[in-house]
């Protein structure tokens, strides 16, 4: 490992792949490229202005398309970040990532990093070889945010397209646009532009050092099932037979669940499977007992977490031996 230089601020850039490290044969192509092929040294070389912002230490953690993110890699990333942030000579972390599962990784880190120092994820919608690639400026902005004292104690952040989002709230909302990320209803925490960072609000729910969660070993299996017209119970029954510990429902509207799935979930509950109701709508919250009788079913409302983030929290809760519905509901109401 290359030593971290000693002048301030010292930011470790951990690369995992994604379109920000993507390469196409033709600069006019913004789709049909290969993600996660350009190494972190090349990404840094493309942004000479970084040297004016921070001393950079770079590590290539993985080189993947983030659709292939694994739980083993989540655990390795969380542990590496915690180890680096425990060093006095590291002031913050930037993680480069694919956009497709960025919100899941960001929320996992938000709940499992044990430090007040900044952790900032960034990504790109256009490959590094594209005309008007967005990765270099996103990387510069992410390092700029990670180097700020005002970014301490804010939990894990996502710097993208000049905005700064909380890992808890942010979600990908476009398949192609460079402003692909939003925090529905609550909005961004702030912005970064031309070296200036401004926070306009703070995330209020506990995170990082104020959670009981860690990513130390394997996480319990939790799967997601979507409710829709004519849904069958086959997926739920198969997951239960495979031994899952939890199921997150991406329900319709206010987390409502097709009657066929509701029966399958009641049977799953009898086998001790934790059930969390979220919504496939993309914004708003799911009310406890609002669209199903959670009290009768033993299910839990995900509140404002989308299905993918609800899965992350349920895995961490079950790993922390939070297993009864009331305690899981309390967890979802808290984090
Ligand atoms: C990925 O998620 O790795 C590919 C897509 C992207 O980064 O935009």
From TrEMBL:
Annotated active site: 19, 99
Segments forming domain L-asparaginase N-terminal: 10-203
Any one Pfam family match given in the protein's UniProt record, by short name: Asparaginase
UniProt keyword list: Hydrolase
GO biological process: asparagine metabolic process
InterPro entries given in the database record: AsnASE_II (IPR004550), Asp/glu_Ase-like_sf (IPR036152), Asparaginase/glutaminase-like (IPR006034), Asparaginase/glutaminase_AS1 (IPR020827), Asparaginase/glutaminase_AS2 (IPR027475), Asparaginase_C (IPR040919), L-asparaginase_C (IPR027473), L-asparaginase_N (IPR027474)
Domain Asparaginase/glutaminase C-terminal, chain residue ranges per copy: 222-332
Record keyword Cell wall biogenesis/degradation present: no
Binding site for substrate: 66, 99-100
Annotated PROSITE patterns: ASN_GLN_ASE_1, ASN_GLN_ASE_2, ASN_GLN_ASE_3
A GO molecular-function annotation: asparaginase activity
Entry similarity comment: Belongs to the asparaginase 1 family.
Protein name stated in the entry: L-asparaginase II
Source organism: Caballeronia terrestris
């Amino acid at each position: 490992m290359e030593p971290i230089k000693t002048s301030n601020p010292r930011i470790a850039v951990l690369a995992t792949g994604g379109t920000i490290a993507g390469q196409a044969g033709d600069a006019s192509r913004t789709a049909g490229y290969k993600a996660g092929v350009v190494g972190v040294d090349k990404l840094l070389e493309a942004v000479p202005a970084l040297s004016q912002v921070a001393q950079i230490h770079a590590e290539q953690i993985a080189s993947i398309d983030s659709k292939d993110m694994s739980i083993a890699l989540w655990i390795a990333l969380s542990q590496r970040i915690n180890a680096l942030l425990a060093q006095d000579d590291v002031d913050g972390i930037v993680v480069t990532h694919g956009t497709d599962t960025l919100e899941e990784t960001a929320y996992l880190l938000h709940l499992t990093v044990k430090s007040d120092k900044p952790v900032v994820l960034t990504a790109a919608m256009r490959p590094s070889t594209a005309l008007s690639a967005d990765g270099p400026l996103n990387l510069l902005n992410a390092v700029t945010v990670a180097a700020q004292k005002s970014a301490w104690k804010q939990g894990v952040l996502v710097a993208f397209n000049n905005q700064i989002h909380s890992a808890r709230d942010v979600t990908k909302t476009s398949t192609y646009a460079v402003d692909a990320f939003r925090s529905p209803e609550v909005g961004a925490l702030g912005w970064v532009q031309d070296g200036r960072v401004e926070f306009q609000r703070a995330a209020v729910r506990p995170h990082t050092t104020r959670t009981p969660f860690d990513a130390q070993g394997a996480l319990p299996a939790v799967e997601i099932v979507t409710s829709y017209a004519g849904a069958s119970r086959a997926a739920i029954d198969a997951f239960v037979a495979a031994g899952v510990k939890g199921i997150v429902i991406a329900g319709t509207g206010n987390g409502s669940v097709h009657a066929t799935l509701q029966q399958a979930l009641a049977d799953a509950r009898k086998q001790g499977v934790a059930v969390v109701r979220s919504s496939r709508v993309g914004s708003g919250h799911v009310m406890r007992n609002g669209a199903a009788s959670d009290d009768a079913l033993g299910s839990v409302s995900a509140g404002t977490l989308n299905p993918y983030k609800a899965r992350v929290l349920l895995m961490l809760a079950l790993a922390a031996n939070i297993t009864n519905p009331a305690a899981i509901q309390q967890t979802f109401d808290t984090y």
